[in-house]
Design goal:
Largest sheet: 5 strands, mixed, barrel
Helix content: 25-40%
Structural class: alpha/beta
Number of strands: 6
Length: 177
């Protein structure tokens, strides 16, 4: 009888742990910005506007790499199972069976050359199953980590090991700002 009482609570704790892992937390792009340093807010606000819609050059890309210290990432998200909607951009010029890509929020449509997102608004995604990238937004479900990386397209602060990718709608992406 005593053994039974000891096994049951352990079994219940195990099942409770499984429940927590199976339900991802839906996050928004603003959740990713929560780790920004307050002393950098004026600097970051000055970087983002592009009032004349001028194409960004290499110096702006280099500047975006330098600001990584202002956007260290939201440490509360580290290791969590998350669900986030965004737009997939392949790192290589391939759109079929893509296994790694960048996920970004909806960009301003005011300019032909929108300002590149800050590193905390770019997620490097690994999806071993591979999927075909289209212009449609996607929901990405997986475990998120703070891992700085640099691709030819943009620096990123976050990495997701994706377990599932499904098509989203544009309101899903814009409402999650």
């Amino acid at each position: 009888m005593t053994i039974r009482l000891l096994v049951c609570p352990v079994f219940l704790v195990f099942l409770t742990g499984l429940e927590a892992v199976s339900e991802p937390r839906e996050i928004s792009w603003s959740d990713l910005r929560e780790g920004r340093l307050a002393e950098c807010s004026e600097f970051l606000e000055g970087y983002l506007p592009n009032p004349n819609c001028l194409p960004r050059d290499l110096s702006d890309r280099m500047l975006s790499m330098q600001i990584a210290e202002c956007v260290p990432g939201n440490s509360e998200l580290e290791g969590n199972q998350v669900l986030i909607a965004g737009y997939a951009h392949p790192v290589e010029f391939e759109f079929k069976d893509v296994k790694s890509f960048l996920l970004i929020p909806q960009l301003s449509q005011k300019c032909r050359h929108p300002t590149a997102p800050l590193p905390d608004q770019v997620i490097s995604v690994e999806y071993p199953a591979g999927f075909d990238i289209t212009t449609d937004p996607v929901w990405v479900t997986g475990q998120i980590f703070i891992r700085q990386s640099q691709s030819a397209l943009a620096p990123s602060i976050y990495r997701i090991k994706a377990a599932e990718i499904v098509t989203a709608t544009i309101p899903d992406v814009s409402a999650a700002e």
